[in-house]
Amino acid sequence: MTPYFSLTSFFLAGLFLLSSCRQEKKELTFGFIPASQIEEVEIVGDSLCSELSARTGLDIHAFVAPDYSSLIEAIRTRHVDLAWLAPMSFVEAEQVVAQKPLLTSVRQGNPFFYAALFVRTDSGIRSVGDMKGKRMGWTDPTSTAGRIFPEFELRKMGIDPGVFFSEIRYVGGHDRAVRAVLEGDVDVAASFANDTLNHDNAWHQFLKESGQVSSIRPVLYTKPIPGDVITCSLPVFEKRGEEVERLIAELKAFSETPAGKRLIRKLNRTDSLVPVRLEMYETVREAAKLVLNQGAGH
What domains are there in the chain, each with its CATH number? Predict the structure, then answer.
């Protein structure tokens, strides 16, 4: 756990310097969370922002945070103007700076996705009851699919993960959760799924060999989770609303082209972008209230 927190602390310490350096610049910074390897997200984010800069005439830069909490801090300190946030991160961002939600992601034709608890196919685990006493791998304490919604489902069943599992680890990104199960570092892990048919999910995305994919099986799917949110801090929108709306219009237009579709799908399996329906996020607030009140260690 020490390297993870050292990286985060180093990152947060640099935010104030970075923020002061950009105050005189007429740029917009678009923040992303690395659902997989940070280097891969940086490449895709840079490509997306370069395309948007060319389309809008604005100076748009990608910013990839090392984890969820660091991106929220970047929003709070106004180092990031817009952000592509997971649902839980959006709810957190609302609490630190008023937000102007703009678009939400669509996967498999729906503006929602799922979380799944998954295991090795040869583990002998076939039900939630079989997980008792096993080692659990969450991705991040505030990950929507990597902890909040799966734990929400378990707690609604009367299960306290801190008692139920023999060990709980925070393994990092969704790709690491898949690897942790595949390599036997944990018995169970949580990540995203874009359907409940075992066709489009984290292990299909991050494992390249069919034999490896078939080595993983889901045990539990959560109820639908509203999609990611592309949002702008309200103080930024009030000051630069015309520029932000131009960026969003071009992002949506680009996302409907073959090249744009490939890029946003590579970013986080998004198929298209639609306007936000804020009422959908009440379930996220409910899940966060129940789970986070228990503390990150459970």
Answer: 2-109+227-282 (3.40.190.10), 113-225 (3.40.190.10)
> Helix (H) and strand (E) counts for the chain?
12, 12
* Residue 252 half-sphere exposure toward CB, CA atoms < 13 A: 15
The SS3 assignment for 211 reads helix
**How do 82-85 and 229-233 pair as beta strands?**
antiparallel
What predicted TM-score, i.e. pTM, was given to this entire model?
0.84
Q: What is the mean pLDDT of each run of 10 residues along the chain (298 residues)?
A: 46 48 69 83 96 97 92 95 96 95 95 97 98 97 96 97 98 95 98 96 92 96 97 96 97 97 93 94 95 70
Which element (helix H / strand E) includes 260?
helix 258-268
* The residue to which tokens 């990031």 are assigned: 80
